[in-house]
Specification:
This protein is α+β, with helices and mostly antiparallel strands. Among the domains are: about 200 residues, DNA ligase/mRNA capping enzyme (D-amino Acid Aminotransferase, Chain A, domain 1), CATH 3.30.470.30; about 150 residues, Nucleic acid-binding proteins (OB fold (Dihydrolipoamide Acetyltransferase, E2P)). Helix content is about 40%, strand content about 20%. The chain is globular and about 75 Å long. It starts with a helix and ends with a helix. It binds adenosine monophosphate (AMP).
Length: about 575
Amino acid sequence: MKYSLIADVYKKIEATTKRLEMIDYLVELLEHTSIEIIDKVIYLTQGKLHPNWMGLPEIGIAEKMAAKAVSLAIQISTEDIMENIKKTGDLGISTENLLKMNRLREPTTQLTVTKVYDTLDEVSKASGPGSSKRKIEKLATLIMDALPLEARYIIRTVTSQLRLGIGDMTLLDALAIAFTGSKENRGVLERTYNITSDLGNVAKTVAWKGIDGIKEAKVVVGKPVRMMLAQRLSTVEEIIGKLAGKCSAEYKLDGERFQLHKQDKRVNIYSRRLENITSMYPDVVQLAVSSIKAKEAIVEGEGVAIQADTGELKPFQELMQRRRKYRIKEMAEKIPVAVFLFDCLYVDGEDLTTKPYTIRRKKLEEIVEEKTRFLITPSKISRNPSEIRKFFDEAISKGCEGLIIKSTSLNSIYRAGARSWLWVKWKRSYQSKMIEPVDLTVVGAFMGRGKRAGTYGALLTTAYDKSNDVFRTVCKVGSGFTDNNLKNMLKMFNKHITTHKNARVDSILKADIWFKPAIVMEVIGDEITLSPVHSCAFNNIRKESGLAIRFPRFTGRWRTDKSPEDSTSVNEIIEMYRSQLKKTTK
Ligand code: AMP
């Protein structure tokens, strides 16, 4: 399969602002792809070479190094290329334009997908002395054989700037249409994706074995399960009502989600975004090996930073200092971590994701031998509001964020990858009518004036509409930023800038600058109001009106642990609006 086919489709996808058209182009691409390489086509389209959790070297070389490769391929100095980028704003476009005019030689071969993928894989794996030179040479050879449009996408891929903004759900829609004939089957594909976290593999299986083959997928140690998430409500009475009185309240710890996969003496740790973060937490690996009695197990919990001498819980920001590549041992001593386990997904050949909460929790207690820093999350089975409220106060006083109240009903399975009503979070209130902060994805910015000249005046933020895989705007956030935030913001967002609104963004407002949905920020406001200029829940509560957050402020917390698809959903905003109405009309 020729790489030019992919490049042509990417160009069309880039030009469209309609999600349905995007799906059509993807279907066209998948239908022209042979099964042997369909996984590679999927990864390339996601702008990577492997699923993140494999922990294999990824592409993502610096722009300067890529420019050196281009320089070698077209015999123009790196300085001139960097100068050209200033005009186009994009090394991909610069390479494409320059290649039309200059070439060291004519292509000797037509690039295939396999050739491009394998070369990028070799480039990503090259390491040790002289590896920079080898990377540049390999890349330059690829560019010499590329057509100008192909070069645009190769360069963007190697510099992690592909920016197609295709979400997992959009790819699953396209796979369902291409290989089962109907978008209706997305749910079946999604379940397999949720328990294996590998879209390339889902594609290969459905293309090879059809819908029946896909249903046979199983949970296995070593492949992370996409994590179950919680809905939110603001009063304990509402939560007990929603769970029909069958509930178990657990401390909501303020740290980082860990999914631990144990196989004999080997342990892997996956983050909420399914990155392999094992190397950052050698202390947790040791604790897991010595405390999990089963031979094979998948358990989940929250890693929390603790005060070394007192064992007190510390906030999330402290823990983030453990997210590093260097000085790991030193930081492990400075900021020790305690793990609070709350779920058990698999034990010695048995898939527990389809079992109810009480069975999973019992299994967790059976296989874990608790240690001072490896514990089972405190919980209380109760349907009594005042008892749960007391438990909530106890959790807050110990440094937790609140509670997660979980269903104990017979159907309280582990719903992989879903934000489910089987788990409801109840967070500590802030001093405003809007009870808790929300996590919003930034999709655009408005330039600042006066004191803010030269940086952003406000960010356009969105909630996620999962069923349509679209981000819908809820507010412009212009306050709450420190001078440091403002200083760093331009750089932080720079690599996500796009020339037009992303096809997965629904916005009535026209931002000065558009971003690919990538960065999630925590925002608190005064209340949720109706608004004709925001597209979140448009026409849902009232005709010609959406929902917006009034007086939004940045809390100072960039949610780097969340992907855009993990941000607060449109449905949650609707729920928050409704529960606010109930309170004011009471
Ligand atoms: P939020 O990040 O506000 O959406 O809240 C959900 C997160 O709370 C989960 O992803 C976990 O990282 C964290 N969490 C803390 N304690 C618990 C618990 N007992 N059960 C489930 N999740 C928990």
